[in-house]
Design goal:
With 330 residues, the chain is of the alpha/beta class. It has a domain at 4-113 and 290-323: ATPase, nucleotide binding domain (Nucleotidyltransferase, domain 5, 2-Layer Sandwich), CATH 3.30.420.40. The chain contains eleven helices and ten strands. The strands form two sheets. It has a five-stranded mixed sheet with strand order 3-2-1-4-5. Helix 4 packs antiparallel against helix 8 and helix 8 packs across helix 9 (267-278). The mean pLDDT is 94.
Length: 330
């Protein structure tokens, strides 16, 4: 009987489940909503995994009993105290195969680095950073608590900084920026004063999905917008450098995998980030993740069954995953 392996990428906005055979040929895919237990609780975590896994199993014509190993990348899983309830939520679905659950940044690392160790820096709606040493016995990590601990450098924070910049222009505390007319037009406001009033009075809303506008204005050469992109790059670089120091990678050559939609916005982001990282780790190689992070969860599932996925397996995953899922970096 052919062995199959399941991987799940459980995020704060959506959950993806992928199934492949031992050669990395994709057999099924499923998608559901947010599974971060900080948002939906552990019952919600189990529910969304069950929904996405049910779709994937059905599309592959399989049952849980035919899964030989499973890997789970879980947003919000940052502390040892969360391990038992996370695993219990997964096991409640009737999973009998060997399983492993890690922070969702680590499946991005597995998917993006053939060596299977290094650092992953996630920047999408929010941001996070984790790393593994060569043995995977040591983990380095950011806190994952966003602005409360000074870690915010995702799309939400970038848009918030853009709002701050246009407010500074309107009150004459800062320079004029093309962000102002761009956001006025984008929101349909009458003028900058109407936009500021609308934001303050909750009549107008800007969110993470509006971050591409900041990148667009930066690409046009606006100094304020370019400064915001550089700010985000420096913040992400700081996250990576913290993990690099924790794992004592400064003198090593290793991959820093860039995971998430922010890296598609403007090359200035990764360029600034790289310059920051290279001040302490000149051997770091910045690698843009080119496959969905859920591919890393499948590889993690294979490892739980005692397999060591090679380059051919990775290539097969990359080539066959497009039949079920078009990865855009989000």
């Amino acid at each position: 009987m052919c062995a199959y392996f399941l991987g799940a990428d459980i995020g704060g906005t959506k959950t993806h489940v992928l199934i492949s055979d031992k050669d990395g040929r994709v057999a099924g895919f499923g998608e559901s909503g947010p599974g971060n237990h900080e948002i939906v609780g552990y019952d919600g975590l189990a529910r969304v995994i069950g929904e996405a896994a049910g779709q994937a199993l059905a599309s592959a014509g399989l049952s849980w009993k035919m899964i030989a190993g499973a890997g789970f990348g879980v947003a919000g899983y940052d502390w040892p105290s969360e391990r038992q309830p996370t695993l219990e939520a997964i096991r409640s679905l009737g999973v009998e195969a060997p399983i492993e659950a890690v922070n969702d940044a680590l499946i991005g690392l597995l998917a993006g680095s053939p060596e299977g160790w290094g650092v992953a820096v996630v920047s999408g709606t929010g941001c996070n950073c984790h790393g593994w040493d060569r043995t995977r016995r040591r983990v380095g990590q950011a806190i994952g608590a966003g602005q409360m601990v000074g870690e915010g450098a995702g799309a939400s924070e970038l848009v918030a900084r853009a709002v701050e910049a246009i407010a500074h222009e309107w009150t004459q505390r800062g320079p004029a920026t093309r962000l102002s007319p761009a956001l006025v037009q984008h929101t349909g406001a009458r003028d900058l004063a109407d936009l500021i009033e609308g934001l303050v009075m909750d009549r107008i809303e800007l969110c993470a999905a509006d971050a591409p506008l900041v990148f667009q204005v930066a690409a046009e050469g606006d100094r304020v917008a370019m400064g915001l992109v550089r700010w985000a790059g420096r913040k992400l670089g700081e996250l990576a450098k913290g993990v690099i120091r924790q794992l004592e990678f400064q003198k090593l050559a290793f991959d820093v995998v860039l995971v998430g939609s922010m890296y598609d916005g403007n090359p200035l982001l990764a360029k600034t980030m790289g310059r920051s990282i290279h001040t302490i780790a000149p051997g770091a190689r910045l690698v843009r993740l080119a496959v969905p992070p859920v591919a890393g969860a499948v590889l993690l599932g294979m490892e739980q069954a005692g397999l060591s996925p090679d380059g051919a397996v990775r290539d097969n995953l990359a080539q066959t995953i497009s039949a079920v899922y078009q990865y855009s970096g989000f």
